[in-house]
Amino acid sequence: MITITSKKEGFRRCGIAHSREAVAYEDLFFDEERLAILEAEPMLRVERSSAEFLKEEEREKKAEKENEEVEEKPEEKKSSRRRSRSRTAGKEE
Fold first, then answer.
1. In the chain, how many domains are there?
2. pTM of the model
3. Do 9 and 24 belong to one domain?
């Protein structure tokens, strides 16, 4: 998502009259050349906040958490196996 705010109401750049109120545009609304022009314009405030980028961060955090849980589980199983072996070893004697 690209959000553009103008310092002056109706300021025109790249064929658009920009508003003092923030206006959101889809990521692919502007090509790279026009986006560079808009970002270089001192009368405009251009912010990029990609929803896909945020979703990707969430996926990475979730995957890290799942990996941590998977790493912890084998240790838990090993320790419970040791306990059961020691219990059976005591019974055999």
1. 2
2. 0.54
3. yes
